[in-house]
Amino acid sequence: MGHGGGGALSAELMTEVFAPAYGNDILAVLGDSAVLPLGGARVAFSTDSYVVRPLFFPGGCVGDLAVNGTVNDLAMSGARAAYLSCALVLEEGTELAVVERVARAIGTAAEAAGAVVATGDTKVVDAGHGDGIYVTTSGVGLVPDGVDIRPQRARPGDVVLVSGPVGLHGVAVLSVREGLEFGVDVVSDTAPLGGLVAAMLAATRDLHVLRDPTRGGVAAALNEIAAASGTGVVLTEEAVPVPEAVANACGFLGLDPLYVANEGRLVAFVPREHADAVLAAMRAHPQGAGAAVIGECVAEHPGMVVARTGLGGTRVVDLPVGEQLPRIC
Amino acid sequence: MGHGGGGALSAELMTEVFAPAYGNDILAVLGDSAVLPLGGARVAFSTDSYVVRPLFFPGGCVGDLAVNGTVNDLAMSGARAAYLSCALVLEEGTELAVVERVARAIGTAAEAAGAVVATGDTKVVDAGHGDGIYVTTSGVGLVPDGVDIRPQRARPGDVVLVSGPVGLHGVAVLSVREGLEFGVDVVSDTAPLGGLVAAMLAATRDLHVLRDPTRGGVAAALNEIAAASGTGVVLTEEAVPVPEAVANACGFLGLDPLYVANEGRLVAFVPREHADAVLAAMRAHPQGAGAAVIGECVAEHPGMVVARTGLGGTRVVDLPVGEQLPRIC
After folding, report:
1. Model ipTM?
2. Taking 60 as the threshold, does the pLDDT of residue A29 lie above it?
3. Domain A33-142 CATH (choose: 3.30.450.370, 3.40.50.880, 3.90.76.10, 3.30.1330.10)
4. Are A275 and A268 contacting, i.e. CB atoms less than 8 angstroms apart?
5. Are residues A46 and B119, on separate chains, in Cβ contact within 8 Å?
6. How far is Cα B261 from Cα B324, in angstroms, rounded to an integer?
7. Span B156-184, mean pLDDT?
8. Cross-chain residue pair A26–B136, CB shorter than 8 Å
9. CATH 3.90.650.10-classified regions of chain A
10. Chain A contacts of B38, Cβ < 8 Å?
11. A25 CA to chain B: closest CA distance, Å?
12. What are the residue boundaries of the PurM-like N-terminal domain, all occurrences included (chains A, B) (predicted)?
């Protein structure tokens, strides 16, 4: 299970198995989406499979999650999703009403993101060999001229921003998971981020890095950026917006909110001179109302993320090894 | 299971559930890939999930099948695949050696098709909730200027061609399926068709329809074209190239070779004046060496496919209702 968790084991699978097998360097960029030359334009292209359990959770379902996830991966390159594909693997015996509900969620989420579901596929597997519905979305969108957003572009001096409170998606899914149900008033943050990114780009085209902290949470996102860019990251732990209900649930479950998945948040590395303008643009957008400065990019400890704790100390924020929260997306 | 079989139930799911839920007309074209305006170019975009059982079969595996399937869907719009995405759902406990073998097959098949695997994803589901590996590929490619290939363009007078012997993939998979093993020397035809289509387009840009007869076989492909174009199709049954081993296996299993899946074949509707040139171009290409004229497009019985039998009679070739061969791709 750890190999699917978005942590060190996932990264190892990518660098040790898939990158050599596929024989190319584009995958090695390890961004959320690939930016590719096609027909004279720069096209962002991304895919993700969604195997979340249960299919429906407070604030969303596998359908909107799959749309928002791919829309957001494209947004992390600065692209607005133009077209989406949607491939469903249905488990034999899944009620048609469930399929219809997920399909409607897909359509509604695509419309909200301004994207068109242009092509699809449906396969059916034997009863017991699935979990109702697995959804795989892919998407394409144009990267605007002059925009070059990727993990390698983090620079010492960059200000690190987060677009809102963290940990909501992971805690919302766990709160209704069979065998782990607990009463908590938390709703997933699943949302499309293309509009927020467009607003940030209106403040400056020179955004260095964007990343949506999904599997592995903010901790994994920052570690991947530090590794890709060869810089260090210093996180101000108490500046990270953690809702009280998330903090309580994490305390109860023995989780660190920094490692919990989000599906409607982004972290941004922004040149210091543009940070105020970008933060203001974020706060003026519904998806960025809770935006905050949470740290900075430094030349020290390259590849490493360090948190300044409330007590004045520091601690290393590692890449999670395996799966803290299985089947969260 | 029938809803995933590529027959009437699959079509019903598409028109009754997904098209209204996704709220767009592009899906309604029901071609193998969507052709979309993007950045001033026409981009073909397609996706398919592969849940074939077993993962490895004579002539291929789920990895090359997934690459060739999407490459071929793009080719059916006249596009060469430029970039592919590849999302894997792994079952917990699947041996790493199996994952590596499938990944290598993906890389090798992409290289053979001249495409780059540009982005990917891996999820892991609990043991028992998968079948080793499900692979979902998507692809994008440019449609050349002046090319407009889609099912709606079939016209009375068009000549119907097939690129080679039919039924090999389905019989090859069945021949090694647990519980159904039978000795037969048949190898899947899984292959990329982008090069063959380029050779056909060099003979004429005015190809009307291309379709790869996968799930539901040649019968389903012809029925979909007849329905989309409002024309009739007359098939000369004895002109369809059916290898003896396929005929024997189908006899043994009670299957009609016209309904058996292919993964490296295409059917083409070509204006009569270009048919000889296209047939010659096909036969000169390795993937089209066994090409043959198998019928014609007519104004009579619109939406219906009729076979002229060897005895001089005719019979209706229906769209299969459900699943003749489950989990074949």
Report:
1. 0.93
2. no
3. 3.30.1330.10
4. no
5. yes
6. 10
7. 91
8. no
9. 151-316
10. 38-39, 41, 43, 82-83, 140, 142
11. 8
12. 32-143
